[in-house]
């Protein structure tokens, strides 16, 4: 398995350096498990509780150097003010490449409602932090001039900016992530660094629910665009909530599709395929504790190995205030 990873790494570095470029915190589907703050700094302190969330993501169990991600985050209001703060740290490893990062967030929420019952709120947030990139070439085969045989590392400062709008049962978010240019550790044979990690995100959603009903339904859509590589993908999501005496249950399904194709050869000619992920997820909020499980399956014809990505989310809510709004708005009530 180690030999295969070395070969794949060499191919990526030699022929497709854009694919190897780091992007900061990876954009997976974990935001759907009650953690939009991972994507949008404007969501810090939106809810009526302070939130702590831990996530662990793993692919290819039992394989050395398999992709894995861990995150920990906190966000909450500053007393009864419209200001909020947040903090996030993560570790992302994929073969011989790894990155760790930490961000601090400030968010502000502006109410347009004439009363404290109707939800009509505009939020903005700014996150600033450090990202350290590493590329370990110490165990690579020698003799290739493209491989230095050392551990390369770089630490960069970057910022994310986001806006959110909640109106009754409707919400919308936009964000620009990794706005500043990074040095990174990626260089091609001409010594050029791919340092533009800027990504643009946009989400919209609506929560449907009947009066006095314990059920609610939330369709949503996310679109992401990477500036340097001009890659675009979207998530089409459906989430269902069930109110319980002890808290809340939810389950959902997400479908991710890239709008940019990649060519491959299957023995009979050259074909094209687009990245596709199918992600079911379930979760429960028991009193102040949160548990969620997410499974992502890549449905393309050509993959490195069959099997999906497993993710566990653990959470704790504290310092909760009384629910203010009469709406189907689980992200803020």
Tally the helices.
2
| β-strand amount | over 45%
The strand count comes to: 15
Low-confidence runs of at least 5 consecutive residues: 1-21, 187-192
Q: Encode the helix/strand succession as letters.
A: HHEEEEEEEEEEEEEEE
* Mean of pLDDT: 83
The radius of gyration over CA amounts to 21 Å
Strand numbers in spatial order across the main sheet = 1-2-3-4-5-6-7-8-10-11-12-13-14-15
**Helix fraction bin:** under 10%
Shape: globular
Termini gap: 48 Å
Summing up helix and strand content along with how strands pair, one would put the structural category as mainly beta
State the major sheet: 14 strands, antiparallel, barrel
